[in-house]
Design a protein that fits this description.
heterodimer, A: alpha/beta, B: Beta-Lactamase, Heat Shock Protein 90
Amino acid sequence: METDTQPDDTDAEHATAIDPDGEPVVLAVDDEPRVVEAFGLWLEDDYDVRTATSGEEALDVVDADVDVALLDRRMPGLTGDDVLDELRERGLDVRVAMVTGVDPDFDIVEMPFEEYVQKPVDGDDLHEVVERLLDLEQYDDSVDELYGVVQKRITLEAELPESELVDNEEYQRLREREAELEAETASVIDSMDDEGFAQLF
Amino acid sequence: MAASGPSDERGVADLDALAEDAEFFRSLVEHGSDAIVSIDEHSTIRYANRAVERVFGYAPEDIVGEKLTTIMPERFTADHFDAVDRYLDTGERQLDWNDIELPAEHADGHEVPLSITFEEHVHEGDRVFSGIMRDVSDRKAYEDTLEALQETARALMQARTPADIGDCAVGAATDVIGFPLSSLYRYDDATDVLRPGVQSEAAADLFDDPPTLSEGSLAWRAFQSGEPLEYHADDDRDLPVHRPDGPVDAEYAVPLGDHGVLLVADTDAAAFDDQTRHLVRILAANTEAALGRAEREAERERQNERLERFASIVSHDLRDPLQSARATAALAKAGDEEALDDLEDVIDRMEDLVEDVLTLAKQGQAVGETERVALASVAADAWSTAGAEDATLVVDDDLPALQADEERLRTLLENLFRNAVEHGSTNPDSQAHQDAVEHGGSDVTVTLEPLADRSGFAVVDDGDGFGDADTEKLFEYGYTTSSGGTGFGLSIVRDIVTAHGWTIHATDDEDSERAGARFDVHTR
């Protein structure tokens, strides 16, 4: 790659250096013990899985090793939304997917996650989500943000009628941000091979 | 025409004699109520009867000898002369001579709509043309008003909200029918009075604080009877008006079905005749139709919104248990036997949800026939399905009698009891739980008792009360603080309460012994 936005090698090295097995670390959070247990079952062959059954517990077990967090939204006590904010607050370099039964609404526009996944999910779904989020690690922040913005737009477009979208300021802001980020990251995206591009978007 | 009856021999003889008398006909024409004007071939007026003074504002002697165009709007004069010339040349008539409508010009310059019949005869060797002309101003004005009201009807049908409809109706009463003092009162179901909706400007100026109207007012009486009612200051009937000494001398109240009343008033006691009454009634009928349509549309919109909200909540509430089922099945497959038991719980939960959703969707907010029911026995039935082994139901023996749909009342009580049993444990361990109402204790005591003022009944438990739970949100679809609850039980309760015209309030019980959750149902 000849562009100035080089793949972010430091992160990958960081993960490899600290994690003894070289396996990426996934944190699964859901207030139903059976659900996180199953997430563990589905993912444990490929990743180092940590689980938590409350927002509080999630914040206890999370650290710089965690690469991907799967967060339920509706939980008693600290909600998934709260946990997400706290992860960002701590400056942890973790990619987050909300995995939830809650219908997405315009409130997701301001939420700093990378992906929105609606329940129910199975093992294959989870693998795909985690793989996509891990791929993001090699790119810089603007690609990461562009990914989150595109995911939010697609999620809203799938869920809400067009009539509601066109009148909504947050949705319009999302589209503007997407255009900005696209311009900013054009060189990176050009430099990706077709396969990498297809995987991401 | 004769004053005496047909069998009167002398009367018939008198008429025969009259027919021979030229003076009789001269006088008949002279005093006829229709204006009669005769012209010669040059359109010079040769004769005008007395009625021309009333219709055109000229004394007959002032226009005899003048051209007919004197009493004709200028835009018709050229056509008139052409038409007369052509007729004299060819005998061809440009117009139908019978009952044709044309405007004339009054001495003061305004136009008078006329219905005219033309006649031609020869007098002393000259051709004479006569017009017999009736002033149709009143009829014309009435027709114009009717036409304008049709426009109003179209506008009413396009108005979307009751407020817009009110504006449109009051605007038409003022501008089209011509009553500056008009207002629309809308019936308020909750308080059983007529509330001022829209006032015309003049009415708002005259009564700066329009009162609500109920018994003792003309409008209320018209509303109750469903018939228009009229009041006149000099009327000796003892009709109620809300301000007998006020500036209004005449008032006409036309009911708008069960929506309200259209009220027109005047400071002149002689304000209403058959035509204006008719016009006001037409406007009222159109307004009533528009209000009915707006109401149905609003209801449909509410239903749609409700369905939409409902669909979104249902999908969302099914997603969580589906995820549990999928997770649990995966664990069972991997060899966890216990997970199979959990799977049954998840399936039970989904079944409860489906049942609750069906109850809500099928019965909605409708209520069947109501009858006097014994609350205590319905409560016993409800407890037999909703109660729990360790829980106790205490029924006060002095419950008020109730007018209700028994089946639905039973469903209401079942859901309140179930809620108490699921949330009302007195187990002290539950205090430590982060959410005070979330636990599944069943050693609760549930009391059904009359409200202090006997305006309804209350279901009270001796659990922990609502704690942090939002008592406003309790009744919303899908609201639950318990992982086992469907969140629909209290929505069902609310719908049944609303369908009966009752209200419900959730509070923490003030009785310090019980201090549990309390639902007050006000049935009166």
